[in-house]
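INFO batch 0412 | record 1 of 1 | parsing
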Amino acid sequence: MFDLSNYMTAEERIALQAADNKDFRYATEEQFVTDQKGILWVIVKAFIWRTEADGYYWVSGLAAENMSTPFAVEKAETSAYARAITNTGIEKYSTTKSGKVAPRPNREEMERVAEKPVVRHQAEIDNWEQILNSKPEGITTLSEGVELVTKDLGASAIPPECNHGRMNRKTGSNSKGSYSGWVCPHPIREEQCKAIWAK
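INFO prediction complete | emitting C-alpha cells
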C-alpha cells in the first residue's frame, strides 16, 4: 500500500510554482466526452507560460474528471495545472515537505486510487502480449475521446508537440484504407520526428 504523506497536494505545487515565477500566466482548454457507458467526462489541458511576454507556452498538463463528481471542472483544472507544473521537471515541485523526491502523481490523484476497489479477473491469460496490446471492452481512451469530440461537436483537437513544435494533422486513404494522425512540421523529411498515427 502506498503512503499518502509521500504525495504533494496540487495546491502545494501551485503555490511553489507561483512563488518562483511571479510573471507567469496560465490558460486551460476543456473538452467534454461521453464514454461508451454513457458517462460524461471533462478533459482539461492546462498551459503555463513563464512570463506574460512569452509567445509559446512552457509546459502543459492533462487531467480528466467524471462529471458526476461535485466540482468536476474545477477539480480537473486544478489537477491539470498541477500536472503541468510537475512536467517542468523541476525537482522542487515534486518533493515532499521533508525534501525527498515525491512520486509524480499529486495527492488528490492518489486519494482517488485509494478509494477504488481492486478488480481481479478470474480468467487465466498466458500470453502477456495479448494483455498489453488489447483494450478492455467499454473503455474509451483519451485519443478516442478527443476524436469523438472533434467528430461529433466539430471541435478542434489540441495538436501534440514534437521537437519541432506543434504537429500537423494528416488524414487520407490508401490501398490499406483510411488513415489519420499527426506529423512533424519540419520541412525536411529526413529530420522529421516520428509521426503519431491513430490506431
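INFO post-check: The helical segments are 10-20, 72-86, 107-115, 128-133, 142-153.
INFO record closed
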